[in-house]
Amino acid sequence: MRYLMLIYADEKTMAGVSQEDMKGVLDAWFKYTDDFQKSGKMLGGEALQPTPTATTVRYANGKTVTSDGPFAETKEQLGGYYAIDATDLDEAIEWASKMPIPVGSVEIRPIMEFN
Q: How far is it, in rounded angstroms, from Cα 87 to Cα 71?
């Protein structure tokens, strides 16, 4: 079954990390990604630019309206994702638990299969 693992963290906390500490954080993520790719379970994944770069598109009264920024105010922001082809939810949870996230959360959602 395919799942999307959505990675959330507080951007403000990450912005305060020193360059030296950030190198360590990124090295841990690169190792995780390499191990995940080698497992054959990883379908894809990307990191996202910070939320100030986001644009939200809404539809109201038959018109398209765009606005700067994310669609909702939250304590944690979506920072990236991985797609996994897992045997079951337990396997997706196992891979999510290996992510080098000191703070934050991972939301795991099944990908809709249209037959």
A: 33
For residue 76, count other CB atoms closer than 10 A to its CB. Answer: 15
Rounded to whole angstroms, what are the CA distances from 111 to 22, 75, 104?
31, 25, 22
Helix (H, G, I), strand (E, B) or coil at 12: helix
Phi/psi of residue 92, nearest 5 degrees: -65, -40
Q: Which domains does the chain have, with CATH numbers?
A: 2-110 (3.30.70.1060)
Q: What is the pLDDT of residues 22-63, one digit of tens each?
A: 899 999 999 999 999 999 999 999 999 988 888 888 888 999
8 A C-beta contact, residue 4 and residue 83: yes
Nearest in space to 32 (alpha carbons), one of 73, 84, 69: 84
